[in-house]
Amino acid sequence: MTDKRVLRARLRAARDAFVTEHARAIASPAPYLALLHPGLVVASYIPIGSEADPMALAAAAIDSGCTLALPHVVSRAQPLRFLEWHPDHPLDDGPFGLRQPRHDRCDIMPDIILTPLVGFDADLNRLGQDEEAFIHLDEMTALAKLPNVAVKMTGAPHYSTQPYPFRNIHDGLHRIFDAYGPDRLFWGTDITRMPCTYRQCVTFFTEALPWLRGQDLEKVMGRSLCKWIGWDFKF
After folding, report:
1. 3-state secondary structure of 73
2. What's the farthest any 2 CA atoms get from each other in the chain?
């Protein structure tokens, strides 16, 4: 199994070499154009470095009566927002080299999200899924010896390319549970990028993991987080 950091570096180098000989702009494919209609919200991005340029896709969306949005980032610790944007609007400098709309633009929920990927496999799966999602599991579980470290198990289904109940990530989650215990594991969804419904994000933990039952389940699903942050919530 290749270390994800090594693989990302290799793929970025290949992309850098590619754009020195080919145009960065993405032509609008027919299946994408067929999706566009007035009132649709399409989230695009401002390319960085050798990332593909999506402006032709954005222009096609505008021509079809769609509304454009761009991501707005404050920090890794704060949620990503999508803000309404038009190519005539000014952009601010954001963290990580981003160019993004002014913070006071309207929040908007995209129907289509255009996003750059550094690479994917033959089945169109992004890096960091299935086995690749757990390549640093030993280092992560080793941190369990530190009593002030906890794990937010947010977005677990996203790391599997299999259908619900995502059996190929059960063992990895079980190892995390064994290392940290129910008092330092917190359930969450990050629903905007999940390959399943919100209900399945819940039942994946409450029904599909045979080793998570009883008081342990109650703790992971909320009690432990309340205790961790000192919230005296009455269940």
Report:
1. coil
2. 62
- Give the tens place of pLDDT for each residue, 72-101: 988 766 778 899 999 999 999 998 888 999
The answer to whether 145 and 179 are in contact (CB under 8 A) is no
R_g of the chain computed on alpha carbons: 21
Paired with 115 in beta bridges are none
Compute the half-sphere exposure of residue 109: CA atoms within 13 Å on the CB side of its CA: 3
Q: Above 80 in pLDDT, residue 24?
A: no
Question: b or e along 209-232 (b: 16 or more beta carbons within 10 Å of the residue's beta carbon)?
Answer: beebeeebbebbbebbbeeeeeee
Q: What is the mean pLDDT of the chain?
A: 88
Tens of pLDDT, residue by residue over 173-190, are 999 999 999 999 999 988
Work out the average pLDDT over 147-152. Answer: 93
For residue 74, which of 48, 91, 101, 95 has the smallest C-alpha distance? 95
Q: What is the dihedral of CA 52, 75, 66, 42, to 10 degrees?
A: 50
Domain ranges of the chain: 4-113, 130-228
91, 89, 113, 90: which is closest to 100 by C-alpha? 91
Do residues 219 and 211 make contact, with C-beta atoms less than 8 angstroms apart? Answer: no
